[in-house]
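Repro:
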Amino acid sequence: MFEVKKDSGKSAYQQLADWLIDEIKAGRLQIGQRIPSTDQLSEDLGVGRKVVQQALEVLGQRGYLERKPGRGSVVTGIHLADCIGLVFPEDAMWESTQSFMRLTIHEVYSILQDQGFKPIIYLMKAGNNQEVKERIQQDIQGGRLLAVMMLFKTLNIDTHIPVLHKSPGIGQDGREGMVFRALQYLSARDCRRITIFSQGTKIRDSYQKEIDLFRKDTSLSCEINLQFGSNSKSQSQISEVPQKLFTEGGFKPDGILVTDDNLTRNFIIGLLNEGIQYPRDVKLVSHANKNSPILSPVPLTLFEFNPRVHAENYVKSLHAMMNGKEAVIDPVIPKLIIGKSCGE
């Protein structure tokens, strides 16, 4: 008989879901058999209705149960696959890559494990797309995979199982994005020459849209300089950027947004090496990941992202697809945390 164990490290509904799965695998609940009602299970097992409902939802997501009109929940025969394929670029795990990517992937893996799935990792790197694709299709044909999730990389796979390609939404439109809001924030503090320093060029179009929206909405005359760096460059190369910005022929900004926290750490070193102080000489705003502090002489004004929330969006959207629904990823808006780096 089922019993909730307080020291198991799992919630009551997760424990119940595991117990029901064991019952199915042991043949005590057989394919085609109707599961007792929520009220009946609640009474028989001595747990709340909500615990039962959540446990049954987990079984449905993992393919162990199917809801049939007029019959309730029925044990299905497709529960042999309990693995989720995670496809992401190899460099997402490198220390030089944006920490947001690494943290989000880690959270997705952790959430899926907590839900009882077995994540299988498929690393993509230069020249191995076809090899990865063949491995995934072999695992699908072998009945090993229940679904596939693409994280920061897209690979076209012709299959009957759900495949999530979308990235987590940042905001409903550009006006809720970090660049647009940072431009508003800096311009409201009399910045008229603003540099945006970003990781890589893949997001150039996205950032440019937010810049264009800002110019459309504001009556202020602001010069905006979009620069790109890479965490794969040495620390000294990144820390040299402030020197180039503030030299005689440089842009000489009065406001700066750095869109990656790793870049910010090295950028600050460059500012300190040049004797440039913020907010005295320039106002500084940075991207940040929750629980990933940035060492700074003064508290930074930050747009904080929570990788856990983005990961939950991914997983929730995948569950929707697994239940035959449209994958809709809720927008996640970065939280503005006001420090002292803009003269607040």
